[in-house]
């Protein structure tokens, strides 16, 4: 019976969990009845409701000893532990606590000042203060107004009260008779920011504060509202506040005088301008048509106001269309067309609105929308077209083989198919894919056929054959025009051959019959191996069955004995499932597969073993972060595939991994726990649950016999100048010899470590310089700072010897370089002096040789003149002369012979002659030949001579070509301005040889006159050239001066005595 009372009280207290301290009087009477009946004591009540606080009874002033019984108080305590609202406080079994009205704390009568004065002490809920404010709301745009506050059950307020509107303002209250107080609301100056970021209203706390105690003793809600925030007529007039809609100004206001026209004021939803609800507005893309909408209370635009418009937002682009208002209940968007980009969507929901006078929207139902659609988008087959919503008015145009509107199809009476016609069928069905592609011959396989034009209703699907075997369509899985799902019957053949899928739509005429390109095959699934071979009796082992054709059919079920193995996945060679608990305990169980209607058995067995047990966990503690190594001993551990260790603390479960070493030992990383408080107790924490996840072995999820403990994580101080690693909780106060496994890494090198209670001592590795220090423990990583390591000696003896030797070698090398430089400079001076001496000697020798040469020349000329007397001119005829110049050393050249060539060769020569007469070709031809590395100087001379021989009849053209070649040659030689070459010294180019030949052709007829002229001047030449000398002492014998180092063109001066 006592339990029944407790259950009833628990259900009663569950009524109000948020405000557990506030109960009405009737409920309090019922609660008192519980205690009067002795069903429940106050102390027993504390566990049921957090809204009641159990505390020992304070000692009385009479000196009586404190009783052990508890007492009931209320929740909602302020910072001083006092109740914020009036409530009942009971002590013992009968005494009542109080609520001091002027001071407001919830306390015992003895602690209440002036408890004996009227209404200063409330011991009953009926005595709590009550407050009523009239009016209880105001507009933020209203001026300050007087509020009437009615209070009851208050002591004398003769000292005065203050009205406080939260942090906004305070105003003095005028206390009248019968508990009435007059207050002034905040002024317009204080109100504008009240509703900012609060929407159309804000609830503030209006409190009355006693001037006697400066405490707030009662609080109620007061609302500031802002009608101007509301932007639509429906939201304005449906507001709980006195808001009115001014439809000609499109504003919401609480001031009716703000409307320009009396007939424009709306105060109820029936008077709002609005578009009436209707189904989706269907708009075909690209079709010019009007859109007519039903409406109500549409205002007539006044003088100076703009007319109505329909505004569509299509893919982010705004399209505004003029609209016509027929009357207050009908409006029409004028004729226009709408379009959206792309064919990825067959229909596109479009935001639209009706506006007038620029941007004043007319209210419309939130669910109302326009649907812009294209018949051909995503409906590229007859079946997809005809299964579309009939309201789209789309149909299949046979002539164009497209999904179109009727007006877009040519001869629609015969070519346009639509849903309104009876017995319509789409011809030329097509199968795109089938799955599965294999199955057992026993049948039961559910084959999915996907394609186009696969009927509009399932009754149209006839004669479905899969590899010649009947397949019955499943109506529940049928998708009109796109998918057929059928169930295979059993094949009556022992080894049925494979084949395609065949089906008909309606009848099996040619245009309504189709066959798949894929082939369905009948196979016999089999298996030969399972792994692992053993698992716990409780199940949970991930079993892999290996064999052949294991992906055949549409469904597979694995049985271990008579229990079904939970399917995970399968491929052609294996099936994976999770073993169920064994119904018959440990032992071998047969493995059986059910592939559709085919049963597959084998000799392979799966062995159920006894569930693993855990006998010891060492150590039985870790740090809060976990990840320390645990050694677990037990039995049958090898049968577990993925063992894990778990812990639960504060309702949060954490898991970490384990590794099986052998059948009786495994190692785990301890799971951490989530501890949210600042500091964990040094004595450690015990998790709510600690255990192991070993497949489906539920007995080990919680180890009751293992008192596992979590100690605080170690912490380390920043590394100081001394380089000592200090911290706290380095060695947990755990029993046994187990310790935390620390690793200290300096730079990238671990160091040899010694652990004490407050320090880690590390033998630093052989490193120098600045190295980062890292501490690793239990999955935690600390970096206390950077360590500066200095060497014991600045430089070692080998380093000093090496530096000294290197410096000596460098000094010797520098001295050697200076000596060599000095010797080289002295040798250079000697060489320069020797060269100057040689130049002087050479100049003297050249002058002497020139004098001797002149004397010899005079003698030779005289002798030659004497010898030439009576000798004829050595003059050659033109033919011999030109051939010796152009082709020296060749007596009979082919150009002098008549060619006896075939006709085709003659034709080729004539064509080549025409090309040579093309200046552009000829220049390109010559430049191309000269660009070849194998084009020698002999070849250049031959080409130049042959070209001049070929162009001898067109000397004007040859001269023009020669000028261009010479210009190109000069420009080429001037490219390197620092080292220009001497032109015409040698025949190094085709142009130079052509110039020689050109002179040969043109100067031949002038040779004889030149010889005669020379002979005529011979007597004067014999007399010498004294008459040319500007002075009687000097005779000029040579051309302008050239360097003396070129004796072949020296300047010779003859000095004659006076």
From TrEMBL:
Highest taxon listed in the record's lineage: Eukaryota
Coiled coil: 825-867
Keyword Membrane among UniProt keywords: yes
Any matching Pfam family: PSI
Domain PSI: 226-273, 374-427
Domain IPT/TIG as annotated: residue spans: 428-523, 524-609, 611-711
The keyword Transmembrane helix is assigned to this record: yes
Membrane-spanning residues: 799-821
GO biological process: nervous system development; regulation of cell migration
Membrane topology: Single-pass type I membrane protein
Any single GO CC term annotated in Swiss-Prot or TrEMBL for this entry: semaphorin receptor complex
Keyword line: Cell membrane, Coiled coil, Disulfide bond, Glycoprotein, Membrane, Receptor, Repeat, Signal, Transmembrane, Transmembrane helix
GO molecular function: semaphorin receptor activity
InterPro entries, per the entry: Ig-like_fold, Ig_E-set, IPT_dom, Plexin, Plexin_cytoplasmic_RasGAP_dom, Plexin_repeat, PSI, Rho_GTPase_activation_prot
Subcellular location field: Cell membrane
Family statement: Belongs to the plexin family.
Protein name: Plexin A3
The organism of origin for this protein: Triplophysa tibetana
């Amino acid at each position: 019976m006592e339990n029944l009372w407790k259950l009833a009280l628990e259900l009663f207290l569950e009524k109000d969990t948020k405000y557990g301290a506030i109960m009405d009087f009737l409920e309090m009477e019922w609660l008192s009845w519980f205690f009067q009946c002795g069903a429940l004591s106050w102390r027993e009540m504390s566990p049921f409701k957090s809204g009641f606080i159990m505390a020992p009874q304070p000692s009385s002033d009479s000196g009586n000893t404190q009783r052990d019984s508890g007492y009931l108080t209320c929740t909602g305590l302020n910072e001083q532990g006092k109740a914020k609202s009036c409530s009942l406080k009971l002590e013992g079994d009968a005494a009542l606590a109080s609520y001091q009205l002027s001071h407001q704390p919830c306390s015992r009568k003895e602690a209440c000042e002036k408890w004996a004065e009227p209404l200063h002490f409330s011991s009953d809920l009926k005595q709590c203060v009550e407050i009523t404010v009239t009016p209880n709301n105001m507009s933020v745009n209203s001026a300050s107004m007087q509020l009437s506050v009615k209070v009851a059950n208050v002591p004398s307020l003769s000292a005065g009260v203050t009205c406080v509107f939260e942090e906004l303002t305070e105003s003095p209250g005028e206390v009248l008779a019968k508990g009435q107080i007059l207050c002034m609301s905040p002024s317009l100056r204080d109100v504008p920011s009240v509703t900012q970021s609060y929407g159309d209203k804000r609830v503030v706390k209006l409190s009355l504060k006693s001037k006697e105690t400066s405490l707030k003793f009662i609080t109620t809600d007061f609302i500031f509202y802002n009608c101007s925030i509301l932007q639509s007529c429906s939201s304005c007039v449906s507001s709980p506040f006195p808001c009115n809609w001014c439809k000609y100004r499109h504003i919401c206001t609480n001031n009716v005088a703000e409307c320009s026209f009396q007939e424009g004021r709306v105060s109820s939803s029936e008077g709002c301008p609005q578009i009436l609800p209707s189904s989706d507005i269907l708009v075909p893309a690209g079709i010019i048509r009007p859109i007519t909408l039903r409406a109500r209370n549409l205002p007539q635009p006044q003088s100076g106001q703009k007319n109505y418009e329909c505004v569509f937002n299509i893919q982010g682009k705004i399209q505004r269309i003029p609209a016509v208002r027929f009357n207050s209940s009908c409006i029409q968007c004028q004729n226009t067309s709408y379009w959206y980009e792309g064919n990825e969507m067959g229909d596109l929901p479009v935001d639209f609105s009706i506006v007038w006078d620029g941007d004043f929207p007319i209210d419309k139902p939130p669910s109302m929308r326009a649907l812009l659609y294209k018949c051909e988008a995503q409906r590229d087959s007859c079946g997809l077209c005809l299964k579309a919503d009939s309201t789209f008015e789309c149909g299949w145009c046979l002539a164009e083989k497209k999904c179109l509107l009727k007006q877009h199809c040519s001869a629609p009476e015969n070519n346009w198919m639509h849903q309104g016609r009876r017995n319509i069928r789409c011809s030329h069905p097509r199968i795109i894919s089938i799955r599965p592609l294999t199955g057992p011959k026993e049948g039961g396989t559910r084959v999915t056929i996907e394609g186009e034009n696969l009927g509009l209703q399932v009754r149209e699907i006839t004669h479905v054959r899969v590899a010649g075997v009947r397949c019955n369509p499943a109506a529940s899985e049928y998708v009109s025009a796109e998918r057929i799902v059928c169930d295979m019957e059993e094949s009556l053949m022992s080894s049925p051959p494979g084949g395609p899928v065949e089906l008909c739509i309606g009848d099996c005429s040619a245009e309504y019959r189709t066959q798949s390109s894929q082939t369905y095959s009948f196979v016999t699934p089999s298996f030969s191996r399972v792994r692992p071979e053993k698992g716990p009796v409780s199940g949970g082992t991930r079993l892999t069955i290996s064999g052949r054709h294991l992906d055949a059919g549409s469904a597979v079920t694995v049985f271990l004995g008579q229990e079904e193995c939970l399917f995970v996945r399968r491929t052609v060679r294996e099936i994976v499932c999770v073993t169920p608990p064994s119904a018959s305990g440990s032992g071998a169980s047969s493995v059986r597969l059910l592939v559709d209607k085919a049963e597959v058995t084998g000799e392979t067995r799966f062995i159920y073993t006894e569930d693993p047990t855990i006998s010891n966990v060492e150590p039985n503690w870790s740090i809060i972060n976990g990840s320390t190594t645990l050694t677990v001993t037990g039995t049958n551990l090898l049968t577990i595939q993925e063992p894990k260790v778990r812990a639960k603390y504060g309702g949060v479960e954490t898991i970490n991994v384990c590794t099986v070493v052998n059948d009786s030992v495994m190692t785990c990383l301890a799971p951490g726990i989530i501890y949210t408080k600042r500091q964990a107790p040094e004595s450690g924490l015990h998790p709510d649950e600690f255990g192991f996840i070993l497949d489906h072995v539920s007995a080990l999820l919680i180890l009751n016999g293992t008192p596992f403990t979590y100690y605080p994580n170690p912490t380390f101080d920043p590394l100081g100048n001394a380089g000592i690693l200090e911290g706290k909780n380095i060695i947990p106060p755990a029993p046994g010899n187990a310790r935390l496994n620390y690793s200290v890494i300096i730079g990238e090198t671990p160091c040899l470590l010694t652990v004490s209670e407050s320090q880690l001592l590390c033998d630093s590795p052989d490193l120098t310089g600045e190295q980062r220090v890292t501490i690793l423990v239990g999955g935690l990583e600390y970096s206390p700072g950077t360590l500066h390591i200095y060497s014991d000696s600045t430089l070692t003896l080998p380093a000093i010897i090496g530096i000294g030797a290197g410096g000596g070698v460098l000094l010797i090398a520098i001295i050697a370089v200076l000596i060599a430089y000095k010797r080289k400079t002295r040798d250079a001076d000697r060489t320069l002096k020797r060269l100057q001496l040689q130049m002087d000697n050479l100049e003297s020798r050249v002058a002497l040789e020139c004098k001797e040469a002149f004397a010899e020349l005079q003698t030779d000329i005289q002798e030659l003149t004497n010898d030439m007397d009576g000798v004829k001119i050595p003059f050659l005829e033109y033919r011999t002369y030109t051939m010796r110049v152009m082709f020296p050393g060749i007596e009979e050249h082919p150009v002098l012979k008549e060619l006896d060539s075939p006709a085709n060769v003659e034709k080729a020569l004539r064509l080549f002659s025409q090309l040579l007469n093309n200046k552009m070709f000829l220049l390109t031809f010559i430049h191309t030949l000269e660009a070849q590395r194998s084009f020698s100087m002999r070849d250049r001379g031959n080409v130049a001579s042959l070209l001049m021989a070929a162009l001898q009849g067109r000397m004007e053209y040859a001269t023009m070509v020669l000028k261009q070649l010479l210009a190109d040659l000069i420009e080429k030689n001037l490219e390197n301005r620092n080292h220009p070459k001497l032109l015409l010294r040698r025949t190094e180019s085709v142009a130079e040889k052509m110039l020689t030949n050109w002179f040969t052709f043109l100067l031949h007829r002038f040779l004889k006159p030149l010889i005669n002229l020379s002979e005529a001047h011979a007597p004067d030449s014999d007399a010498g050239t004294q008459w040319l000398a500007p002075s009687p002492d000097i005779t000029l014998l040579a051309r302008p001066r050239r360097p003396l180092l070129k004796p072949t063109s020296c300047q010779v001066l003859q000095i004659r005595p006076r």
